[in-house]
Amino acid sequence: MRVLVVGSGGREHALCWALAASPILAKLWCAPGNPGTAAVAENVRLDPLDTAGIVAFARTHAIDLVVPGPEAPLVAGLADALGEAGIRCAGPLKAAARLEGEKSFTKEIARAAGIPTARFARFDDPAAARAYCHAKGAPLVVKADGLAGGKGVVVAASVAEAETAIADFMEAGLLGAAGQVVLIEECLSGPEISLFALSDGAHAVPLGAATDYKRLGDGDLGPNTGGMGAVAPAPALTPALAEAAMQQILCPALAEMERRGTPFRGILFAGLMLTRDGPKLIEFNVRFGDPECQALLPLLGSDLLAALLAACDGELGDFDLRWRKGASVAVVLAARGYPAAPRPEGVIRGLETASLLPGVQIFHAATRRSGGQIEPAGGRVLTLSATGADRAEAQRRAYAAVQAIDWPEGFCRRDIGGPPVP
Q: Count of CB atoms within 10 A of residue 419's CB?
């Protein structure tokens, strides 16, 4: 198989790393990739949103399968364009990618399928949104309806915070068109879980669950980020809760999408809150999470490429995935100033030393090679993943890798996977 991965972050490096191990892989490309993906694939200078360019490259190089990492190309219709060219895409068509592209569409699907989720109201008028917040009272969650690159959700502890979010999204235009419509939801409480499934449109196979650490600082303090680390399996998700989430949330959503004539094929990511009343849906995403992907894939014992092909070809009915025993902890190293104003400075040393530690795998997210050295090139720069017999061992190994990295200009949370590590 000749495969093209689309994207440039840590998730895409993890996908390339897993796909490169497949016995049925002949050639692997990554567009545009990073210095990490270059070790296992050939990087291609293509913008992930250059749909025509990706299709042309796939045709020219006889690509058998395209694996999109980020959501934006799928929401823009990449799978549709590839399908018209007769090329498989391990991701949903545009009509199904609305599950991530439009938060209000997800709520529509949830209502139609009887999926438990937070109560909400939709607004395109900021004055009406503010009035609703005053009527309901805090805490509230304010969500941009469109794609906002992880910046479109504010958990407001006060009505004043909710009003600020409404002003930022709807009036100041901080999120562009994505924030012109907002959803205001009740604030659910409980452990938050990322649950993944692989679907061929008619069948679903569980693809693991992880806990994502969104807040910037230890103890879940500070602003929300794109994710400062992840743990798999998700500690709070028991087998019974996982089964309940599949049967009450993921499977009904997939059935409703099929009923509407827009079957979902690819990776469906359900953000869940484990409330006192059981699992409730926070949101759907239409791809792997980042950094959850970097925590989950080191535990996958099956051939990822074969699984993605089965999803594309409608053959998941009798498909099963094997998982390695143990746990995985993924720690994100970020540039100082992240997330508000990252300062990607300095030279990153010690990568080879860290990569030789037991159970450790390093995934590049925002790096560049300059004069034979690796330098940071963004906010979230590296993900240091480690597996172990249990979560405590995986955490020790992950932070041993952090200790081996020489990059004074970077920082990380110290409590991913357990109590803070000195």
A: 9
Q: What is the pLDDT of residue 181?
A: 97
Q: Where are the beta strands (DSSP E) in 33-147?
A: 42-43, 65-68, 88-89, 120-123, 140-144
pLDDT at residue 223 above 90? no
80 — pLDDT class (breaks 50, 70, 90): very high
Task: Count CB-CB contacts under 10 A for residue 47.
Answer: 13
Looking at the structure, do residues 306 and 343 belong to the same domain, yes or no? Answer: no
Determine contact, residues 387/324, Cβ cutoff 8 Å.
yes
Distance CA 269, CA 197 (A): 7
- Number of domains into which the chain is organized: 4
Residue bearing tokens 């199904």? 96
Q: Are residues 130 and 163 in the same domain?
A: yes
Q: Above 90 in pLDDT, residue 318?
A: no
Helix and strand numbers, DSSP H then E, in the chain: 14, 22
Q: Do both 69 and 129 map to the same domain?
A: no
Q: Are residues 307 and 208 in the same domain?
A: yes
- Buried b / exposed e over 133-161, threshold 16 CB at 10 Å, is beebeebbbbbbbbbbeebbbbbbeebeb
Q: Indicate which CATH number applies to the domain containing 364.
A: 3.90.600.10
Residue type, 284: F
pLDDT exceeds 90 at position 244: yes
Range of the domain at 133: 125-180
DSSP 243-265: HHHIIIIIHHHHHHHHHTT---E
> Which helix (H) or strand (E) is 15 found in, with range?
helix 10-19
Using one digit for the tens of pLDDT, what is the confidence trace for 262-286?
Answer: 999 999 999 999 999 999 999 999 9
Give yes or no for a contact between 268 and 254, defined as CB atoms under 8 angstroms apart.
yes
Q: How far apart are CA 45 and CA 293, in angstroms?
A: 23
Instruction: Name the token pair of 388.
Output: 């172990």
Nearest alpha carbon to residue 169 among 148, 140, 187, 138: 148
Q: In sequence order, which ranges of 331-390 are alpha helices (DSSP H)?
A: 351-355
* φ/ψ of residue 185, rounded to 5: -120, 155
Tokens (6 digits) for 270: 């359900």
What ranges in 226-377 are assigned the alpha helix state H? Answer: 239-245, 251-259, 292-296, 304-312, 351-355
Residue 157: inside a domain: yes
